[in-house]
Amino acid sequence: MSTQAFHGTDGAPRDVDGRAGRLRGTFRRVWSLTRAEVTLLSRNRTALLVALVFPVLSVLALLTFDLEEGDAAGTGALTVIMFVGVALLYIVYYNLVSTYVARREDLVLKRLRTGELSDPEILAGAAMPAVLLAAGQIAVAVGAALTFLDLEAPVNVVLVAGAVVGGVVLFALLAAATTKITRNAEMAQMSTMPVFIVCLIFSGMVAPLDAFSDRVADIAQFVPLTPVIDLTRLGLLGTTGTEPAVGFTESFAEAVTPAAILALWIAIGYAATRRWFRWEPRR
Amino acid sequence: MSNVIDVEDLSRRYAGGFEAVREVSFSVRRGELFALLGTNGAGKTSTLEVLEGLAEPSGGRVRVLGFDPGRARASVRPRIGIMLQEGGFPGDLTVDETARMWAGTLTSSRPVGEALEMVELAHRSKVAVAQLSGGERRRLDLALAVLGRPEVLFLDEPTTGLDPESRQNTWRLVRRLLEGGTSVLLTTHYLDEAETLADRLAIMHEGRIVREGTVSEVVASQPATISFASGGSGGDPQLPPLDGARIVMSGGRTVIETEHLQQTLTRLLVWAEEHRVELPELAARPASLEQVFLAVAEHGDGSPPAGSGDAELRAETLTGAPGTSPGTGR
Fold this sequence. Notes:
Chain A has helices spanning about 20-45, 45-70, 75-105, 110, 120-150, 155-180, 190, 195-200, 215-220, 225-235, 250-275.
């Protein structure tokens, strides 16, 4: 009984309210779902604790390892870069795969689909607690790095913000697509492993891509997390590796390639979700 | 337009090739309750899912309030309410929080308290959904379906798992909604539910509609039955000629099937009086929906059965009081 059709908010006939009215409606519906999801998360102390503590511990462990390797970026920038990577991989990607699958298996998604929420609104609403947590952690990391770790004022804040927003959208979509190969919430640990490991090693979040051979680096720039990390490095430091830093204006030119790769991945994630996302358990 | 739902030659084929719905056509008029009956697997839910905009048809045309329910979800959904046969809720939210969440997604919503009152769940509003009984969860489902004051309400087996009192309450609520002008498409396998609530109904079998009409129209295809225990005082009496009636002996009972209940019964009773024959456990009963339903389940097309095996099946239904009132049929 797979009902795979994936409908947007745009029904054939246009709303009389026009675009602004529809957007208000979308916001109201997603907000209502978000409130319920946040309530649910707040009642699941274990999940909340793990989501808060795990990224911090991971970053500390990775930092220790990385500082021995010697990355030119400096502790402050590295901390932020790692928090971006860990938040996207763990809080957004892994966490959402298990959330989406749990809601699917409990028939909650099926129930939600009978109402006025559109399909993207349901996915967005269910994703909001993770998105807020991830954004919050990254913001705290930036604040802490600026205050305590000698992080200098970023070269281009727009790129950092764009990287985070784009990364959140991409990994939420990848999470939705990954539910296809995830039978139940526990299986999420297995099914997220390939993306998780490839991104951890080949995205430049732990070691800059310059550390790899040219051929590996060429391929690695197409790993989904790489453009996010590249844009973050570029925005923070004005360079993605060992080349000399560029200024605010030039950083936009440098950002074109990673931004295009990120956009491509978002398009792939969207298409995969449209095609594969199931709204109810396989029976 | 007086039809709120129009279905023309609807077919639905699953990925494996199984054809769950085969060229089904029917309409639901504004303000009426239309019931889809059928055994499990007859295609009721598969039909409903297309009308609800949850699944694509593989053939045919479907209109709900004039729209294609799958393509124009944003236009249709604010005006309909859907109660799935099986829908989930997060267990950690309370009844009240769940209803509030749903209300927040609706274009226009009743007050949450009013909807919970309607399904008699108001006293449970602070309870976590996980603590609710199956029947209470069903009623919460119903509360959400009516929360948006729908013009058209889809109810997929709304009273399955409810205790008799809750069923009566649900029926009362559905009647009240009908009086208020709501149109309802309901599936059920409780025949008394269809008999009490439905203005019109269709019986599905193996993906097709095999009978359609008002309850009395559908029932008219079946004969009425008179039955009594065989072997009363002094062995089986020789029955008088009963024009047009068929006599079947089955399970220790004599069953007479007739198109003209009053006439045949009069003749039988006059004959019994004249010959001083006692007819133990005498029961007379007009044709029932249950009879049609069982005939459909047996034969597929609902034609009157011929073999004694079928008579036996129906003979069981005769043991109840004549003219069984709704609510005691099962």
